[in-house]
Amino acid sequence: MLLKRILIFSLFIFNIGSSYGQKISIGAGVYSIDAKVGNSKTNVSNAGAYRIQYHSKIHDQFELLLGYNIIMESIYTGDKGFGPFIGFSYYPFGSKTVSQANILNLSILNIKKFNPYLYMGFSQRQYQSVKAAYSGFSFGSGLEIGWNKEIAFFGDIQYATLDGPNEGEATEFVAITGIMYNY
Question: What global pTM score does this model have?
Fold first, then answer.
């Protein structure tokens, strides 16, 4: 009993052990885009949103995000929009969905079942059909669900306002679910 109390005390007070700080995620989902160029307006909604993203812990509650998004008119064919994303995510309960502490021959694994987050960043899209680049800010929120010490699932929604050439503007709403690897 005394050993258990010492271990718990040292975990919380001295922060002994290691934890995962880097993640990579890949996901797929649905999107809706409202675009306007001059007096012309259009709306496209479909499955066919894809994202790969690298997460790097920069503080207990913050991560740097570097990603690449692909949006396809049909699930895998048709007009495409693609481009990079850079941003920050904020985890109100800490960015570690999975953490592990090792003391001597004892290993303690903590997996959060639900870990919500908010994020914001800068997105750029190159749309094939109009041969133009749009860029702007995006905001979103999501939820990580821990499964084991290396794998977590996630789901998030993102809203982006993008501006382009010829008085073009677009708003993008994307919902993505996927898998995240902690290393």
Answer: 0.79
What the block records as the tokens of 69 is: 């998004």
Round to whole Å and give the CA distance between 44 and 38: 17
DSSP sequence for 91-158: -TT-S-SEEEEEETTEEEEEE-S-EEEEEEEEEEEEETTTTEEEEEEEEEEEEEEE-SSSEEEEEEEE
Provide the terminal-to-terminal Cα distance of the chain, rounded to the nearest Å.
33
Structure tokens at 120: 């914001």
Greatest mean pLDDT among 68-72, 107-111, 167-171: 68-72
What Rg, from alpha-carbon coordinates, does the chain have?
A: 20
CA 86 to chain centre: 10
Beta bridge partners of 56: 22, 64
8 Å CB contact between 163 and 135: yes
Q: Residue 32 CA to chain centroid, in angstroms?
A: 18
Which of 78 and 12 is assigned the larger pLDDT?
78
The residue count of the chain comes to 183
Question: How is residue 121 written in tokens?
Answer: 């960043």
Helix (H) or strand (E) holding 11: helix 2-13
Task: Give the pLDDT score at 150.
Answer: 86
Q: In this structure, what token pair is assigned to residue 127?
A: 């749309």
